[in-house]
């Protein structure tokens, strides 16, 4: 039986940041995949550089940004002012939609404007009610509801009022009215940074402080005995003192056999197509959002417009319920639908597809509900009394940035460092 002080489940950015900040070198990282990175892995194929999906870093802590960039090299990381818009018949509307309704056709604009002053009263009880109470029927039904239903693949009344936290681009009526005269499209991700080698460069930057002899790839943790403090993996057993896990929280609950109601936890899946074409497409945009229900994808992102490479390189995202079965035949049929829709909306007109890749993110976006918030808090407290700590976006079953994960991981490491 192997033995370690810290058994770290998962080799993504969160746990790598924890290991890098920990002063104790008695740890073991167990990663089910054959490489580190989690969802921040990068695919390099036929001259294209794609991530598993769009992973762009938005820094609020300059020290973290400097630490990462210094390891990659400043010449290899570009800071970009985000350019994004919403597809609209006959044109486009700048993102966020609610600050740019004046760009809509006249009848749509008037309906959205009137809706701002006829908002329902009362305290909203779910995410959908929050949208209507803050922005009115016109804005909600034209963009916010259909887009987020495509994204989350669920009825928005299932989600908590604050399901997106600080990441939702709120705006009050005066903000919206002022935007008619002078553009204000500020948001948490108004700028982003991206390395030439893809998101994996950030993973590799953190992993410089993690010796590979303390990492096991291709090994999955199957169950955790909290009484004897022994974990069973796909390749053996490991005795531990502490567990630090970034695995999806309901999976950790299953591994530890902690009694819980699995129906509390739901999420969507996202099918991502990475597509490379023979020539350039739209130039002055990084993201395009599609609220239209007859378009299969909810968002496109353009890698080629970050470093101005000569061929259109994009990711396409499609949301599904967590229960959806996405077999090879389905993926192939949706791939054909994606190409048809790209042509129909004017993105890939006479372009030739020269390379492609697909991946399913499961889970992708978790469904944050009042029940899930309470249950995560309760179960994390119980696990902590047994030396088990669940961190990260999926480990906390929440919505946060990659940088937030690094901050959380460092804070946990600091607690152990102070106690040693």
Task: Briefly say what this structure is.
The chain is of the alpha/beta class and 420 residues long.
Features:
420 residues, alpha/beta, Alpha-Beta Plaits, 7-stranded mixed sheet, 33% helix
Molecular structure report:
The chain is an alpha/beta fold and 420 residues long. The chain folds into three domains: 2-39 and 200-262 and 368-419, FAD/NAD(P)-binding domain (3-Layer(bba) Sandwich), CATH 3.50.50.60; 84-178; 268-361, Alpha-Beta Plaits, CATH 3.30.70. The chain is 33% helix and 24% strand. It contains twelve helices and 18 strands. The chain has helices at residues 13-21, 62-72, 106-116, 127-152, 173-178, 200-207, 249-256, 304-307, 328-344, 370-385, 392-395, 402-419; strands at residues 2-9, 27-31, 42-45, 48-51, 77-81, 84-88, 91-94, 191-195, 215-217, 221-225, 230-233, 236-245, 268-277, 287-289, 299-302, 313-321, 353-361, 388-390. The strands form four sheets. Strands 1, 2, 9, 10, 11, 12 and 18 form a seven-stranded mixed beta sheet that branches. Helix 1 (13-21) runs parallel beside helix 6 and helix 3 crosses helix 4. 40% of the residues are buried.
Helix/strand/pairing class, anyone? Answer: alpha/beta
Alpha carbon gyration radius: 22 Å
Averaged pLDDT, please? 95
CATH architecture term of the largest domain: 3-Layer(bba) Sandwich
| Percent helix range | 25-40%
Please tell me the total number of domains.
3
Overall morphology: globular
Q: How many β-strand runs?
A: 18
- Poorly predicted runs are none
Q: Main β-sheet: number of strands, strand sense, barrel status? A: 7 strands, mixed
For this entry, what is the oligomeric state of its chains? single chain
- The helix count comes to 12
